[in-house]
Design brief:
The protein has 125 residues and is mainly beta. The chain is built from no helices and eleven strands. The strands form two sheets. Strands 2, 4, 5, 6, 9, 10 and 11 form a seven-stranded mixed β-sheet that branches. A four-stranded antiparallel β-sheet has the order 1-3-8-7, with no helix packed on it.
Length: 125
């Protein structure tokens, strides 16, 4: 069983920044594909950013140039640096892990089996 715990959410004004963290237990992050998803109220959960075990990344078009996904294997921690935040970024953000090799072109939710509890991000106009 893999345990993931997000932190770093909060409320910020438009244009501000937040850095989310996800501490991963019971597996080696380098052996998994990891990703960040988000879900706004009454909307479907969507992929935001993905990082493979080799460091390859992919981002949703809506966050390209603003968000950066990274991981620190020594600390077993996944990060999402979010800059130039917009009200449209308001959502619950989840980290997720998969033992499978990812699709290099898209974030496929079915590949991810372990999920954190989510952390709320609210961006005000």
């Amino acid at each position: 069983q893999v345990h993931l715990a997000e932190s770093g959410g909060g409320s910020v004004q438009s244009g501000g920044s937040l850095k989310l963290s996800c501490v991963v237990s019971e597996f080696n992050p380098s052996s998994y594909c990891m990703a960040w998803f988000r879900q706004a109220p009454d909307k479907e959960r969507v992929g935001v950013a993905q990082i493979d075990s080799d460091g390859s990344t992919i981002y949703a078009d809506s966050v390209k140039g603003r968000f950066t996904i990274s991981q620190d294997n020594d600390k077993n921690t996944l990060y999402l640096q979010m800059n130039s935040l917009k009200p449209e970024d308001t959502a619950i953000y989840y980290c997720a892990a998969s033992p499978f090799h990812p699709n290099p072109l898209s974030i496929e939710e079915w590949r991810f089996r372990d999920w954190g509890q989510g952390t709320q991000v609210t961006v005000f106009s």
